[in-house]
Amino acid sequence: MSTWLVTGTSRGLGLEIVKQLLERGDNVAATTRSAHRLTEALGATPRDRLLPLELDLTDESAVDVAVCAAEDRFGGIDVVVNNAGYGFLGAVEETTAAEVQRMFQVQVFGVWNMLRAVLPGMRTAGRGHIINVSSVLGLTAFPGWALYCSAKYALEGLSDALAGEVAGFGIKVNVVEPGYTRTDFLRPPALSLPEHHVEGYDAIRTMTDAHLAMGGTQLGDPVKVATAIIEVGDSGKAPLHQLLGSDSYRLGQDRVRALAQDFEAGRKTAVSTDTTPA
């Protein structure tokens, strides 16, 4: 039996992870904006090993209290899954300062708050596992997804650096990058849209309409994605970056090739800036 702390659990992928962990007998501290919504969504799933935690991840002191409550209840935390987040689809010019701030508060600063809270206990124990749920849009980018991508790109950089920092303490870090998955992610409130549209971005309007109509047709199976994330936590053998979904794998490979082409195309200029050119 392990103890997991999972964020963003009242719907979608986070809820499915909690269900599977409880059904197999693990302890779960589950953060959510609404404990009632979480317990209602769990239905008949066993709950004797569940600690629901109503939490605003952007409130650092509240995160500290929640982590202490989980450690006190279960004697420590083995695996943290930073899953909370939402999407935003709109042009850069259409995003307000408040929308940019909110995105980073939830998807970057909220993760940072959680990490600062859980790492001391993991260092003391000499073990632990952090799984950060990113997206294939943390590796590549498309017009209209700039705000979401920028937050996920930040999460990717945070995860890469963190992995090197904590490896010596026996703490494992993974970042997972799912593709399109059949959750409610492409429907409000999981998907936010700009308050005001700017004329001329017709392609983004068309793409937005297509995404809003996509619900239920995505390639990824949320049950299988949740199972894969749990396996990442169980095995400890997954690569630092674990793609999930054939669409994610394809887009990731496309991005690697595009970057390699860019690097080679710019090689002459790159080496020309050395004190002694190569």
TrEMBL record:
Matching SUPFAM superfamilies: NAD(P)-binding Rossmann-fold domains (SSF51735)
SMART domains: PKS_KR (SM00822)
Cited Pfam families: adh_short
Keyword Nucleotide-binding: no
UniProt keywords, alphabetically: Oxidoreductase
Keyword Methyltransferase: no
Every Ketoreductase domain range: 2-197
Family: Belongs to the short-chain dehydrogenases/reductases (SDR) family.
Record's protein name: SDR family NAD(P)-dependent oxidoreductase
Organism in which the protein naturally occurs: Paractinoplanes hotanensis
